[in-house]
Structures are given as structure tokens and as C-alpha cells.
Amino acid sequence: MKRILVPVDFSGDSINALKFAIYLSNKLGAHLRMVHVKKSEKFVMPFHFDELKNEIIHTVQEYFEKLIELHSPNYQVENGVFDFKIRIGSVYREIINQAKYGDSYLIVMGAYGASGFEEFFIGSNAFKVVSYSTCPVVTVQNEGEHSEVKTILMPIDASNETRKKIPYVTELAHNCKAEVHILGVHETSNSSVIGKIEHYMQQAEDYLQEKNIKVIKNIRKGDNNTITALEYAREIDADLIAIMREQAETTFNMFFGSYAQQMVNRSEIPIFSVPN
């Protein structure tokens, strides 16, 4: 059985991420594990924990036990295990190590931590986890309730790596019974580049339709692929945007260049980042 890992620092974003991870665990039939990383043995009171603001709690373990008590009724995986781990050390390194040694299929985490919104995503532990994790990472913003996945946006650009996310998107769409929007994005009028993107889009459509997944295709030109994709996601009210963590360094580089970091930082829509 797969396992989903949720880093929890008791911030609003991390609790939102936990709720979203419970939904994904139910759909994927996955074990669910929370992890908290302490920088030292000393216990520091969480920055934000509205759910248990009236509770008297003295340890991280007690916080986790209360979280499991609160959220277990919503975790409905038959023979699934909903548990937690506490680690000490560098936050992003310990999260990555827990995912690796715990054989996690997916990490779901808040885009911001307990330090609040004054810390840009580009410098946060979340960005480091996305950058170095060997499994996909879903980053969730603390804006609105991300309660289901019915519409997934999968942008396709001209890089060879862009297609590597297709199997992950297919599995998620199949289990969530979601439709997938394949959006070809380009910044050029070069016919060979556009033709390459259209070819990749057709391959993606064929792969998805083999799994009986509803597909909608579109292609758009814009000044910046990232902005084009994000604008389209808002138009269709997407529940998730699937991107590659790394792309080839070309003029058609789409995600995790400087513009992509801004998109992940600003997007109110959860971002599904697949490692290259």
C-alpha cells in the first residue's frame, strides 16, 4: 500500500495540507503519516493551532495524538495506517529522509510554515523539499478549502521532460474521477516548436483516454508560459496543477525557473510537482 507523508508544523498551511492529504489518501488507498521536525530536543509551542486552542498540551507527541483523534473519522482507508513520526534536525532534510526511508509515494505540505507569510516560498523549507525530494510533492496554500480534485490542469511545453508527469496525473485522475485539461503553452510562433507541443499533447490524450479519463485540450500562446498556465487554471477553476520540477534550460523553460517559483509562491491552487 502506498504512503502519503504530511509535514506538520502546526501552522494553518500544514493543517490544510493534512486535510487535503486525508482526501488523497482515501482516493489512492494510501497509508497516511504525519512528520514533525524539531530543531532541537526542546519543545517549542506551535505558532498556530486553532483546532486545539483550548487544549492543554505539553509535547509534540500529545499534539499528534490529538490530531489523529480529531481527523481519524475522515480517514477511511481499509487496513490503512494513520500515524506520525517525530524527527530532529534540519527541517527539509529530515522530511526528505523520512519520505525516502519510509518509502513515501507522495508528500503533501503547506507552502508556508509557522513563520507565516512574511517568508517567501523561494526561501522556505517547502521549496527545498520540492527541489530535492525523490517523490512528487503537492504544495497547498492556506487559501480556501482544498477538499477534492475534480479538475486537473496538466500544462505541456516543448521540453522532453514535460511528458514524465503523465503517468502520475493519470493515476490521480483515475482514482479521483477527475477530468484533465491538457494545455499546450508556448511563447513563440515557430511552427516546429508548436508542432512538437501538439504531438506531445496528442500522446498525453491517448494515454489518458486509454484509462477512460475525460480529456479537454487547449493550446495558448503568451508572453510567459507560467503565467499563461496559471491564468487558464483560474478560468477552469482547477483543483490541481501538475508540473515538472525541472525542465530543460531553453527559452521554453516552463517551471522552476524564476517565473515558476513565483507561480508556486502565489498560486492559490495546489501544485503537484513531479521530480524529473
TrEMBL record:
UniProt xrefs under CDD domains: USP-like
Ranges for domain UspA: 1-140, 149-274
Superkingdom of the source species: Bacteria
Gene3D superfamilies referenced in this protein's UniProt entry, alphabetically: HUPs
Classification via Pfam families: Usp
Family recorded in the similarity comment: Belongs to the universal stress protein A family.
Protein's name in the database: Universal stress protein
Organism from which the protein derives: Ancylomarina longa
Lineage summary: Bacteria, Pseudomonadati, Bacteroidota, Bacteroidia, Marinilabiliales
